Amino acid sequence: MPIRLHVNIDHVATLRQARGTQYPDPVFAAQLCEQAGADGITLHLREDRRHIVDRDVERMRDAITTLMNLECAATDEMVDIAVRLRPDVVTLVPERREERTTEGGLDAASHRAHLGPRIARLVDAGIKVSLFVAADEAQVDAAVALGARQVEFHTGPYAHARAPVGRDVERTLIAQASRAAKARGLEVAAGHGLTRSNVVGVASIPEIEELNIGHAIIADAVLMGLPRAVRAMRAAIRRGVRVRRAKP
Q1: pLDDT of 194-220, one tens digit each?
Q2: Is 215 in the active site?
Q3: Which residue has the higher pLDDT, 30 or 99?
Q4: Which residue in 10, 25, 129, 220 could disulfide with 229, CB within 3.0 to 4.6 Å?
Q5: Which of helix, strand or coil describes residue 231?
Q6: Domain 4-246 class?
Q7: Is 160 a catalytic residue?
Q8: Considering 11, 34, 51, 71, which one is annotated as catalytic?
Q9: Minimal CA–CA distance to 203: which of 157, 161, 248, 244?
């Protein structure tokens, strides 16, 4: 399949942390996702450790057999952890304590001085760097200048648009930014708020190579089980791929 599906398992840890138990285990959940066909596992180590904790990251590095994508803020603490554990990919994201989840893209264009040395450390350690940014050409240019290999476009505005016309506008912005990123030599990913219902529109964009999806898969898993939820999302993505292939 031309689009990689990376499953974000943060909300397995959210359920565990709600009661302070040892279960459900996000590492075991990640292994189930791999067995069901996930191409990689994404996990977000937040400053406040509200779901994923350091021990999860350490165990995940040893346990999974596909690809490990560590989401984190661009802080010295997080860069130190990444350099020590060597995930395959580090995706730098914005982070605010008061938010429920990541609410917007990283403003790489305005924070080059802060991001530059931290990205350089990750690159020097042999870690692929991705920036979670808005679908905006200025952010694409900043990612290139900073030495990132990939951009992940924030699909929240698309996913949460209330009317079809609004969703079409947001999809057009993602498509335009994806073409710009691909033309500049970047790999193109997307994620946030994607479900089996709305992922088709994003998966049909030819330049998109990877989707990071978590909450919707874990929510589906409550009703249908985790392996089936992963397979159902892959089927939805395939519908989007068929749309792109059908276009002249």
Answers
A1: 999 999 999 999 999 999 999 999 999
A2: no
A3: 30
A4: 220
A5: helix
A6: alpha beta
A7: no
A8: 71
A9: 244
